[in-house]
Write a structure and sequence with these properties.
It contains 3 helices and no strands. With about 100 residues, the chain is mainly alpha-helical. The chain has 2 domains: about 35 residues; about 40 residues.
């Protein structure tokens, strides 16, 4: 009888707490503007500001480096294609002269 009682009293599934993270670009831009304005106000009042702590556009810097790398790869691909075309042209000239 113990076998049948375990079938009817099944354990409840364990729950979990998932907190989704959202990226709000407007909020980030707004906070960045506020930070720059506060630094400018401090400069006008004569207070010394430590601008080394604040690094603006960190996401933009990553994107710029990625774009620069993609341009380099694109140039390399174009160069390889041009070399291949030139080699094909010389091979054609060599074959037609024989």
């Amino acid at each position: 009888m113990g076998i049948f009682s375990s079938i009817y009293s099944m354990r409840k599934p364990r729950g979990f707490s998932y907190l989704p993270r959202y990226y709000n670009p407007e909020k980030e831009k707004r906070e960045e503007r506020i930070q720059r304005i506060l630094q400018e106000v401090d400069k006008e009042q004569g207070k010394t500001t430590n601008s080394a702590q604040y690094i603006p556009h960190i996401r933009g810097q990553f994107k710029a480096k990625k774009d620069a790398r993609s341009r380099i790869v694109h140039k390399q691909n174009v160069r390889i294609i041009l070399i291949f075309i030139v080699l094909l042209y010389f091979a054609y000239l060599f074959i037609t002269r024989i």
